[in-house]
From TrEMBL, chain A:
<dbReference type="Pfam" id="PF00941">
    <property type="entry name" value="FAD_binding_5"/>
</dbReference>
<dbReference type="GO" id="GO:0016491">
    <property type="term" value="F:oxidoreductase activity"/>
</dbReference>
<dbReference type="InterPro" id="IPR016167">
    <property type="entry name" value="FAD-bd_PCMH_sub1"/>
</dbReference>
<dbReference type="InterPro" id="IPR005107">
    <property type="entry name" value="CO_DH_flav_C"/>
</dbReference>
<dbReference type="GO" id="GO:0071949">
    <property type="term" value="F:FAD binding"/>
</dbReference>
<dbReference type="InterPro" id="IPR036318">
    <property type="entry name" value="FAD-bd_PCMH-like_sf"/>
</dbReference>
<keyword id="KW-0560">Oxidoreductase</keyword>
<feature type="domain" description="FAD-binding PCMH-type">
    <location>
        <begin position="1"/>
        <end position="170"/>
    </location>
</feature>
<protein>
    <submittedName>
        <fullName>Carbon monoxide dehydrogenase</fullName>
    </submittedName>
</protein>
From TrEMBL, chain B:
<keyword id="KW-0500">Molybdenum</keyword>
<feature type="domain" description="Aldehyde oxidase/xanthine dehydrogenase a/b hammerhead">
    <location>
        <begin position="21"/>
        <end position="141"/>
    </location>
</feature>
<dbReference type="InterPro" id="IPR036856">
    <property type="entry name" value="Ald_Oxase/Xan_DH_a/b_sf"/>
</dbReference>
<dbReference type="InterPro" id="IPR016208">
    <property type="entry name" value="Ald_Oxase/xanthine_DH-like"/>
</dbReference>
<dbReference type="InterPro" id="IPR046867">
    <property type="entry name" value="AldOxase/xan_DH_MoCoBD2"/>
</dbReference>
<dbReference type="Pfam" id="PF02738">
    <property type="entry name" value="MoCoBD_1"/>
</dbReference>
<protein>
    <submittedName>
        <fullName>Carbon monoxide dehydrogenase</fullName>
    </submittedName>
</protein>
<dbReference type="Pfam" id="PF20256">
    <property type="entry name" value="MoCoBD_2"/>
</dbReference>
<dbReference type="InterPro" id="IPR008274">
    <property type="entry name" value="AldOxase/xan_DH_MoCoBD1"/>
</dbReference>
Length: 265, 795
């Protein structure tokens, strides 16, 4: 790890100001992704701006038709939340499948969404539910937030403050864990919302994506059998030492069926 | 007063007091006054010419004290890292043994090969300096697989090693095997890969070296399984340091599994550097650094053929293997796929003729050496897979074909056609026990239950034997060992009757401090708590070959037993004097010396006191003091073995294999501490399951990059991968070790991969699947099912 300055602001505007005024500065939330890259000297920001003292970034609120989760809320809190378990059980289940207990206690929803790891779980939930990313300056729809491998619509200095999830009619998540890392080799989030069905896939490609043919089929018949025969094109899917592209494509269908099963149960 | 806790008891482990309370003393815990930090600069290329190194920017970096390179090694006239075994080919031609410089000279041969050592005031400064080192590489194509490496036109690692073949080794009677194949009713064939593994001990490697100009003495603290061997190899053969001027300490070590039983270049560089900078130097490997520098294991490609008569009796076995050595010869490297492999191909069967050819091959990968089991898991895997393939082809039940070929209990000692002679064993007894323990008779019910959930269930057997307790020195010497393989122990009885044992083995998780104390407690009748075991310091322990090859109890324990017997012999002499009786009339039992047939006794403490306060003592014929030493060189290997039965469930939709039941019945000879034996079996089985289902070291052909270079990509087995295991022992006593022990450190790893893969193949056999390579990952199983000859549907 190379030396860096450390700031712990109390107000969101102060944090945003530090971030824009110090070149090569970085936000740190749970640090589960950032700290390992610092230790391996893959990143060497001159300053870290710690979000942990911004109290209004933590917690889960019930707004009736939506649930809002503060950016600094750790996965373990989402997984254990009565509110989330009742209103969006698929999202609570998703949070409970992230990493291991230590990672779930430190890692945050804001950090996960901002990082947009191609194998992370939350992006599937956020895109699958059609959530809204609330930032220090604006609100961004999930459909225009995730831009590709570790890339998002966030501008320099922009801080995610919360994620707002519409409460779906039904939703479920199924994850095939990568054997070593336990990130998603393929994870599929399926949600039945007021205006149709959304299917979001993580792990299979360079970024989270939706599957319109499955969405159409499930809108007609929200049952696993409706999508059993839908095959995903292998073009653009990831092939690595853990899984070849055609196997990932196959898993998308299997996990989508299981996600529908989970949503129905 | 504590009590005697002897052989067969299961006290909690003595060493856990400090481990569980955070009071262990590992190398990275040690701080020396004025200590500096060192960092190795390693090759990022699999294969490259080292054109030059510009140290200037690194040297100018803040806090940097020195930068050492291969040129400095050359200038100081230091040796190359020695190989402890010299094998020969069929014509007696010695293996090719190119030098293994401690810092690369002229060329680098694997990603991770060391090119420089940067020493600074702090680790951060050393890292910063290392990043500024300018190394000029001319990158060459890499070759990482053995099949590719021996092909014409392959990149050549060394100018004088044609086709990258270090040695073309063979064992057995080729002609007899050919003749047997000619008259065979059936020949079964099998091609397989034994996947490359990375050991991953919990504690990464680390070292600290210090030079004292006042005494011209060096001390090296290192994460080693064999400090005395490091002292010898490094002092005598690399750095030219006289043995009495070099102290090597291996304090608490957090797991070894073989990874720490080699003399590594890092140890030599750091010891040499400490004298150059006249300050202690410390290096602690990161996990990532371990992946590209800890010696790897396994990595074979094999073709095997079994000749059978019409009743399924094995007539002959022929095995051709290409074994990966990596970029250089490590300490035991060439010995593992040859001497520890070929002699095990007889297994528990009466196969009369066996021939084995092994081509030992250099590639642009981390050197390959012993990893838990070392050669024997590879042999067991080939043989036990082969037996299943033959059974299936001939339509004979897998258990039945094993029974037809097994060595009966009465036939021991049994001479195999591949050098080794098994002293004792009862493979049929282990098999029978395991069949019951695994509830094999109700397997059909469980299979049907799985099928009703759309899953395929399979059962796999491995009836195996291994050779451990390394090793009879004379025998090993004939096979190419360049050192002895005995062990030593000193039993020091204090004037107050407590005992300190100095032993040459090294405890790094095996529970020696407990097991060895039980032996002494039982034999001397001394309280268990009054026995301490000292190891891992060449200044405190007389000598030793260390811990590997399941040898600690078998060879070290034998030395300890002998030394303890000598204490009793001397104690009897003292007792005879004090009790005014003839020595022959003195009995020793339960800590008391007595005159046979009388109530006249002297306690062990009284005898110890008399030995150190020799006022009434036969000084004319007996030296004072009560301390005895013994060296023990085994007369044969020991041959533990047993029967493992794995039960798996395959999800055809995802290809996931779940291990649902695991049963092991093993013959490990006498059991000193059943809890520790059970723990060793559990751990060993898990490592074998890891190889079978999860672990795989993958290199990129061409670039030589390690693609599985972290725990995010290299899958270690975890608790939730495993069922509760049923392990038990069915022991026959070793006929040549003093206590009848056979060793248990590696059996689990040796028996399990074949059991698991045989179960996976069984689960898929109705689809025409006849073999699955390790690891049986979901992707691999799914691919097999895609290509399977029958439609995928649960029966
Ligand atoms: C061993 C291990 C296993 C894991 N397994 C999984 C898994 O199975 N599934 C999964 O989804 N994830 C997994 N993770 C990742 C983990 O879930 C964390 O969510 C993730 O590391 C990011 O969250 P964090 O709070 O730790 O962010 P940090 O590491 O602190 O930050 C990550 C990045 O996001 C930026 N950032 C953080 N917060 C904000 C914000 N509010 N606004 C804008 N930018 C921000 C930071 O600047 C940084 O660039 C794993 C991590 C580890 C270490």
């Amino acid at each position: 790890m190379k030396p860096f300055a450390y700031h712990q602001p109390n107000q969101i505007p102060d944090a945003a100001k530090l971030l824009t005024s110090i070149e090569d500065s970085k936000l740190v939330a749970g640090g589960m992704t950032l700290i390992p890259t610092l230790k391996q000297r893959l990143a060497s920001p001159v300053a870290l701006v710690d979000l942990s003292k911004l109290g209004d970034l933590k917690g889960i609120t019930d707004d009736g038709a939506t649930i809002t989760i503060g950016a600094m809320t750790p996965h373990v809190v989402v997984a254990a939340s009565q509110l989330v378990q009742t209103k969006i059980p698929g999202l609570a289940a998703l949070a409970s499948m992230i990493g291991d207990p230590a990672v779930r206690s430190r890692g945050t929803i804001g950090g996960s969404v901002a990082n947009n790891d191609p194998a992370a779980d939350y992006p599937a939930g956020v895109l699958g539910l059609g959530a809204t990313i609330v930032t220090s300056t604006r609100e961004i729809a999930a459909d225009s937030f995730f831009l590709g491998l570790f890339e998002t619509a966030l501008e320099p200095g922009e801080i995610i403050t919360a994620i707002r999830f519409p409460v779906p009619l039904k939703a479920g998540y199924a994850k095939f864990k990568a054997p070593a890392s336990r990130y998603a080799l393929v994870g599929v989030f399926v949600a039945k919302v007021a205006d149709g069905v959304r299917v979001a896939v993580t792990g299979a490609g360079p970024g989270v994506f939706r599957v319109p043919p499955m969405e159409a089929a499930l809108s007609g018949n929200f049952d696993p059998t409706a999508i059993a025969a839908i095959k995903i094109d292998t073009d653009g899917l990831t092939s690595d030492i853990h899984a070849e592209a055609d196997y990932r494509a196959h898993l998308v269908t299997v996990m989508a069926k299981r996600a529908v099963d989970a949503a129905l149960s | 007063m504590g009590e005697v806790i002897g052989i067969g008891a299961a006290p909690k482990r003595k060493e856990d007091q400090r481990f569980l309370t955070g009071r262990g003393n590992y190398v990275s815990d040690i701080k020396r006054p004025g200590m500096t930090a060192g960092v190795f600069v390693r090759s990022p290329h699999g294969h490259a010419v080292l054109r030059g190194i510009d140290k200037s920017a690194a040297l100018a970096s803040s806090g940097v004290i020195a930068v050492l390179t291969g040129d400095d090694v050359k200038a100081d006239g230091l040796g190359s890292l020695p190989c402890g075994w010299g094998i020969t080919d069929a014509k007696g031609v010695p293996m090719k043994e190119p030098p293994f410089p401690m810092l690369a000279q002229d060329k680098v041969r694997f990603v991770g090969d060391m090119v420089a050592f940067v020493i600074a005031e702090t680790p951060e400064q050393a890292n910063a300096g290392a990043e500024l080192l300018k190394v000029d590489y001319e990158v060459l194509p890499s070759v990482v697989g053995v099949l590719e490496a021996v092909r014409p036109g392959a990149p050549q690692l060394f100018d004088d090693v044609p086709n990258n073949i270090c040695c073309d080794w063979e064992l057995g009677d080729k002609a007899a095997v050919e003749a047997a194949f000619k008259k065979a009713a059936h020949v079964a064939k099998l091609s397989l890969v034994n996947n490359r593994l990375i050991g991953n001990p919990m504690e990464p490697r680390a070292a600290i070296a210090e030079y004292e100009p006042g005494t011209d003495r060096y001390t090296l603290w290192t994460t080693s399984q064999f400090p005395h061997v490091v002292r010898f190899l490094m002092g005598a053969l690399v750095l030219n340091i006289p043995q009495h001027k070099l102290r090597v300490v291996a304090p608490d070590v957090g797991g070894g599994f073989g990874v720490k039983q080699f003399h590594y270049g890092e140890e030599a560089v750091i010891t040499w550097a400490a004298k150059r900078v006249r300050r202690p130097v410390k290096w602690v490997a990161s996990r990532s650094e371990g992946y590209v520098s800890d010696r790897h294991g396994r990595d074979h490609v094999t073709e095997a053929e079994l000749a059978l008569d019409e009743n399924g009796k094995f007539l002959a076995f022929r095995v051709n293997t290409l074994a990966n050595m990596g970029g250089y010869l490590s300490t035991f490297g060439p010995n593992i796929p040859t001497n520890l492999y070929g002699p095990l191909l007889g297994g528990v069967y009466t196969t009369p003729a066996i021939y084995c050819n092994v081509k030992v091959v250099f590639t642009n990968t981390v050197p390959v050496d012993a990893y838990r089991g070392a050669g024997r898991p590879e042999a067991t895997f080939v043989l036990e897979r082969m037996v299943d393939v033959a059974a299936s082809e001939m339509g004979i039940d897998r258990v039945e074909i094993r029974r037809r070929n097994m060595i009966p209990k009465e036939a021991y000692p049994y001479q195999t056609p591949v050098l080794v002679q098994y002293d004792s064993g009862d493979p049929m007894g282990c098999l029978d026990g395991a069949l019951v323990a695994a509830d094999v008779k109700n397997f059909g019910v469980r299979k049907a239950a799985s099928a009703s959930k759309g899953k395929f269930r399979g059962l796999g057997y491995s009836t195996y034997v291994e050779a451990c307790g390394l090793a009879p020195s004379r025998f090993a010497g004939r096979l190419g060992a360049r050192g002895g393989l005995y062990e030593s122990a000193t039993v020091r009885v204090h004037p107050t009757g407590q005992v300190t044992v100095m032993i040459g083995t090294h405890n790094h998780g095996q529970g020696h401090e407990t097991t060895f104390a039980q032996i002494v407690s039982e034999k001397l009748g001394v309280a268990f708590e009054n026995v301490d075991i000292v190891f891992g310091d060449t200044d405190r322990v007389q000598f030793g070959m260390g811990t590997y090859g399941s040898r600690s109890l078998v060879v070290g324990g034998a030395a300890l037993s002998k030394a303890t017997d000598k204490v009793i012999v001397k104690g009897k002499k003292i007792a005879a004097h004090l009790l005014e009786a003839a020595e022959a009339d003195i009995q020793f039992e339960a800590g008391k010396f007595s005159v046979a047939g009388t109530d006249r006794i002297k306690t062990f403490e009284e005898i110890a006191g008399a030995a150190y306060v020799p006022h009434n003592y036969p000084l004319e014929v007996l030296e004072p003091g009560l301390e005895e030493q013994a060296y023990y060189d085994p007369v044969n290997f020991t041959y533990p073995g047993g029967c493992h039965i794995a039960e798996v469930e395959v999800d055809p939709e995802t290809g996931t294999v779940t291990l649902v039941n695991y049963t092991a019945v093993d013959d490990v000879g006498t059991v000193i501490n059943p809890m520790i034996v059970e723990g060793q079996l559990h751990g060993g089985i898990v490592q074998g399951v890891g190889q079978a289902l999860f672990e795989n070291a993958v290199y990129d052909e061409g670039s030589g990059q390690l693609l599985s270079g972290s725990l995010m990509d290299y899958c270690m087995p975890r608790a939730d991968h495993l069922p509760m295991m049923q392990v038990s022992t069915h022991s026959t006593l070793c006929t040549h070790t003093p206590m009848g022990v056979k060793g248990c450190g590696e059996v689990g790893t040796i028996g399990s991969p074949a059991a698991v893969i045989n179960a996976v193949v069984d689960a898929l056999s109705h689809l025409g699947v006849t073999h699955v390579d390790m690891p049986a990952t979901p992707n691999r199983i799914w691919r097999l099912l895609q290509n399977a000859s029958l439609p995928v549907a649960a029966e």
